[in-house]
Specification:
With about 300 residues, the protein is an alpha/beta fold. It has eleven helices and eleven strands.
Amino acid sequence: MKHESKAGSDRKRRAIPTEREKNTLAKRRRLDGDLAKTTRVTSNGFTKKRKMGIGSSSETPESTDPEPSATLALWAEDNDISAKDLAEAYGGGLKDTTIQGTNADTINGGLSKGVDIGKYVGIDCEMVGVGGEEERSVLARVSIVNFHGTQVYDSFVRPKEFVTDWRTHVSGVSPRNMTTARSFEEVQADVAQILKDRVIVGHAIKNDLAAMMLSHPKRDIRDTSRFSGFRKYSGGRAPSLKKLAKEILGVDIQSGEHSSIEDARATMLLFRRHKSAFDIEHSQRFPNHTPSTAASKAKSKKKKKSKR
């Protein structure tokens, strides 16, 4: 009897959750709650999720082994964790959301307040078609992130010409976004101020600069489409950003409507992964690259002191 009584008391003690178990359970409930807000299974067995960027939704087959997003990959890299392992650990529930603890994206939020921009910025643009039969691409959205993938700037842009093809299935831009879009001149001025004296990272970035009608010193551009180390993924040709993200980062992007913020993050992550090789190739291309303004000022001050 004493033995049974002792065993019963032991079970009761074990039944009381520890503080750590309580925290784990609470965290799991929060994550499940967030997932329930963003995901629902429809009657035809598809999972309907909110799309990042424009607030619309699309139906995709429910996956048991989802690929992580570029947002997740950036966070995981900063914390020395495999992005895929982290996504699988949460059942893919964080695939289309920003990791807890980082700033949430503000679509069409303009310039983000309180964000340290830093030396490097990643940029990506979305275009729509104008001009009828002789269709041309014009700017419809600009997104900029810093070295850590945090949103610096995001804005829809009102085209000056009549849009003949919104390309919504790819661009993610539709007429309803134009009610809150900024003028081309305002966005151009904002972006020019952000890019000034900074190194910009992008994919086929000459197209983005042309759409914004801006120029930038070539020595301050890092283009993932031109980096020789990535040419092996496309038989020596310029690879697509989607292919590089899949092959190198192990993340899926541009599945349906594009998110320019996510594309900018993926580009920045590619650059970060191979920054040393980018720097070597850059120094070979620009052997007489002049130092930054700050460094030049520091050197001039030293010279003045030595003269004294």
